[in-house]
Write a structure and sequence with these properties.
Elements (H helix, E strand, L loop, with lengths): L3 E6 L3 H12 L3 E7 L3 H11 L2 E2 L3 H6 L4 E4 L6 H10 L4 E4 L6 H11 L6 E4 L6 H12 L5 E9 L15 H17 L3 E9 L4 H5 L5 E8 L4 E7 L7 E8 L3 E4 L25 H4 L1 H15 L9 H20 L3 E2 L6
Parallel strand pairs: 1-2, 1-4, 2-3, 4-5, 5-6, 7-10
Antiparallel strand pairs: 7-11, 8-9, 8-13, 9-10, 11-12
Helix pairs in contact: 4-5, 5-11, 6-7, 7-11
Amino acid sequence: MSPITVGLAGTGRIGASHAESLKSLPGVAAVLVADADAERARATADKLEIDFAADVETLLAADIDALVVTTATDSHPALITAAVDRGIPVFCEKPIAADILGTLAVVERVRDSRVPVQIGFQRRFDAGYRAARAAVASGELGWIHTLRATTLDPAPPPAEYIPRSGGLYRDCGVHDFDIIRWVTGREVVEVYTTGGNRGEQFFADAGDIDTAAVILRLDDGALATVSLTRYNGAGYDVRLEVLGSLGNAIVGLDDRAPLHSVEPGHPQSPLPAYPGFMDRFHSAYTEELATFLEVATGRQPNPCPPAEALEAFYIAEACELSRHQGKPVRLAEIRR
């Protein structure tokens, strides 16, 4: 494979981290970054000793072989379609768009294109989740009856982020919804959820919640629960328990899981909890980008096309509807 030049749009926290990872990956000749804040792009470029473009439009017009999108959600549809129209393979952090209609528009636009668009769901590239998926597929767990997923943030994001986050289900829960589908190979047919606010007022002001409990019914009758919160003071806690008739597989149960047993004589781990998602999934993010390079150069099929991301977004949308209506919602009611 000839070395390629990768453009990256958006140099916030995750964008800067991706730029650093891309720079170190085999097969990358150069990384060119851009941001709506030109000075932020310049600072990232200077720190990493890479090049930067004056703006995103200049980046798209440059001689790049692939594009990584980590900008604000409302810019994703235009960047994806602009790159595809230029024949540039795209990796875009979730979500594709801020709502179902916008997501569907992009999915339809790129459906028949030969230019790959990979959507970022990094848990699919984590070693633990991959092992759980393999255990389910092998049959060693028997038939799956229960899944328990958690995404528990140690502290909330800044207040200004919440109104444009899409809400707790679309911002955080969507990762659990995607990985439950991916690990089990099953589809969600019904959701029921409730949520609450006991933290900062800015969640309620934005029409959002800071904590939620979700029940999902899968198409084979298995049940999944998803616990979400912005306030888990013990540390970042992301786990998945897959319980079957013959055994179980648990992801995220390691020495850095922020779980504190109060059983007498039970030793506590001396290791600190993960402070956040960037640390917990650093290896998964790197593997995801390495896979995208393979996809962009035609050496591997796309592991997460837009249509896959749409399915997880449907579940998040059904959760939002269930919360407001106070009753179960079938996915068939909102799928278009």
